[in-house]
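Subgroup meeting minutes
Present: P.N., E.W., G.H.
Scribe: E.W.

1. P.N. recapped why we're keeping a running log of single-chain structure predictions: easier to compare across weeks, and new members can see raw inputs and outputs side by side.
2. G.H. added today's entry (267 aa).
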Amino acid sequence: MKILIVDDDPGQREKLTTILSPLGTCDQAGDGEAAVALFEASLVDKSPYHVVCMDIEMPRMDGHEALYAIRELEREWAVPGKGAAVAFMITARNSTEDILDSFHASCQGYVNKPVDGEDLVRRVREHIPKRLEATRDNLPRRMPPDYSASRRLELEEPERLDIQMANLVKRFAKKWPGRRIVITPIVEEKKGTGNDFTRTLEIALQRGAAETLLETGEDLLLGGSYAFVGGNVVLQLSLTTVENRLLDGVRVPLRTIWVRTRPGGRG
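Output recorded in log:
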């Protein structure tokens, strides 16, 4: 059995490795992006992970976003439902929103720190026999598609995008009060051009910016690009005045699904 342990705390990773290593081979990742990269590599090698233990609060990409990206990879690789990795969110956070977000991202369990080793092992063992059998008989069947003009990006939860962008703009407005935030074009990083999806991102940002007020001082220009990172979409933003750059490379993971388009309609 293969187990992926994800936590930005090296001590916590070692603790979980000690607890779970009797059940199988344990690999470690220090953040969500590294976890998604390792998971994708396991699909390429046709030796997918059976268990993922994921912290929530991590730099670069948090546990919720990473698990969404992992589930997208499993869909793209046609991993059958019974063969999907068993995921446990392991965290000191225990708010209702965290718990609901975790299960919405298709995890099988929510484990609070400090971790009870015996309880975690018991819970993993409850899921493993079915996953091992399903994975053995149903290896990943196809390569992920090339994300090109033949594929259309659609948001899984448009209302969550509006909330996410509004909160982002509010943070900028609070740090630079009395300025109006003006949204400049968003482009696809690989092609350097806009599309329907970039327009959706711009509109969501504009809704958030509409709540800021112009009093004195220069306008703040907010724009950037999106790129694919480990099967997930990451929006990268910069905030500038006409002359000066204030923030650069603000990374915002987005929860998305990809829909293949064919001549004559969706397919």
